[in-house]
Each structure stands twice: as structure tokens, then as C-alpha cells.
Write a structure and sequence with these properties.
Strand order of the largest sheet: 4-3-5-6
Number of helices: 14
Low-confidence stretches: none
Number of strands: 6
Structural class: alpha/beta
Oligomer: single chain
CATH superfamily: P-loop containing nucleotide triphosphate hydrolases
Order of helices and strands: EEHEHHHHEHEHHHEHHHHH
Number of domains: 1
Largest sheet: 4 strands, parallel
Radius of gyration: 18 Å
CATH topology: Rossmann fold
Strand content: 5-15%
Bound molecules: adenosine-3'-5'-diphosphate
Length: 294
Amino acid sequence: PEKAVLPSRQQLFDFHGVSMIPIFTDNWENVQNFQARPDDILIATYPKAGTTWVSQILDLLYFGQTERQKTIPIFERVPFLEIAVPSLVSGKDLADKLTTTPRLIKTHFPVQFVPKSFWEQNCKIVYVARNAKDNMVSFFHFDRMIAIQPEAGEWNNYFHRFLEGQMVFGSWYDHVNGWWKKKQNYSNIHYMFYEDMIEDTEREIDKLCSFLGLSRSAEERKMISGGVQFDKMKKNEMANYSTLPVMDFKISPFMRKGKVGDWKNHFTVAQNEVFDEDYKKKMKDPTLQFRTEI
Ligand code: A3P
């Protein structure tokens, strides 16, 4: 295939009240008209919350260790619905072309942006959330190394932008809260946490199986859990994004650390105080709790 012309770093703009960049809004009409099927599974996350990890787990749960796993990169097995990079097949078209069932589809949309057919078809949705401090750090290193996102810039500035919601896909606070609230009137959401997966991957896979109505043997679940540990996935070229040219792993690899608490290596004491103070104001719902260490 012809070598794609890659866009340069894009600028944030306000899109229906959410900071976005054009590659995630240019295909808006088509994405909004996406026709979900009842057995589609939507994997929804704020960027850097563990999307790839859960995608790989779901792919293994449904399709096992097959040729698919060895030859197709994760971003083709699990299309990113709203992405539309000029001269590349859009995520929506990739999803439309999937022939395997169920279709696993990824989105970073805040809940109010999700195409209506997912709700109409009562699709199962797996939402993964990660504590804001580690999520911010992971996003910072990602923005440094990926050529299409806005420049990460200097850490202290990034820190404040995160608190203000000036990130691609908007405010972390709005995202995790919006999806959490949705659970109240839409029961087909499984809301999970990155920290829980780090603590006990097998337990979280068990919960996923219950939610999805899958009966996988204890042995299978153990195999999958072992196969998706950080070091394994970091080496797995079909899961580690090394085949995607827009990322510069010399700056920071996609599979960077995979830890809970790396924020402690980035936040200053003063930043941590500012963060905690601000957090209390924004996170009023006592039923939604995050762990910043385990
Ligand atoms: P870090 O930057 O903190 O290392 P996403 O897939 O949503 O973009 O999230 C990427 C983050 O998930 C990165 O976090 C990445 O290292 C981490 N991650 C990916 N696979 C993982 C795994 N198998 N175990 C633990 N963390 C994983």
C-alpha cells in the first residue's frame, strides 16, 4: 500500500464542550450513524486507562490464541471507532468491515458522544477507569511520543492543563463521572479499574466472564491472565503498537511502565496538594472511588 501521509501535531479545539482534535471529530456524522449490532462489545475508556490491556483480554476470551493474535495488530482487531486519519481507513470503516463475531470496538468518547445505536441495541460496554494521577502521567508520556496529539510541553504546564480538562477527549473528571452515572440507567456497563487489574488480573477476568456470560475454564482464564502480563504484552508486537509509525518509542514506549503509583515520580509535593484540593471539588460522588496506590 501507498505510504500514508501522516498529519502533524493537531491543536485542541472545543467540540460540543469537550476538548478534541480533528482526527477524532472529522468523521463525526458517519460515526454518529454507526450501526451497532446487539452482540457488539464496546470498550470505552479515557485515553491511557488500560484500553489496550482490556482489548487484548477480550480478544483472547473470544477468539483464543489463534492466527489472528499472531498476525493482526490490536488496533485492527479492535478498531478505534472515531479515528479518522487522512489517507488511512477510518475506524468506523474498519469496524464495518469486521467479519468476526462479536465485534470488539474501542472508543475514547465521553458517554454523551457514543453513537445512539449502541444504546438502542443494548450492547455490552466495558468501561475501564484509572486513577487520575497515574492516568495523567501516562497521558503526558504518550503525548510526548505520538506525533499527532498536541505537544505535551513542560510537565507543570501539562499538570495544570489536565486539571482544566484541556486534554484530547476532554476532562478526565467528566469522563469517569459521566460513565459512572450512565450505569444507573443502563445496566449493560461493566465499570472496571486499572488498579484492580494490576492487583489481581485473574479475578478481574473472572468478573469480565460473568458480565459477558462466558464460561471459560479456570485453566483458560489463568492462561489468558498470564499471557497479558505487562512484560509479555510489551514484547508482543501485535499488542504493543510497535508497528504504528506515528509513535516514537525512543521518546517513550507505548508499553511504558504498567504500574500503579508512578505519579509519585512526577508530582512535586506542591503539585500533589493542588491536585488533592482540586480533586475534592470535582469528585463529589462518594460511590466512585479510585486508588492511587495498591
Ligand atoms: P503507563 O504509561 O503508565 O505504562 P491505553 O491502552 O489506554 O493507551 O493505556 C496505556 C497504559 O496501559 C500504559 O500505562 C501501558 O503501559 C499500560 N498497559 C498496557 N498493557 C498493560 C499490561 N498488560 N499491564 C499493565 N499495564 C499495561
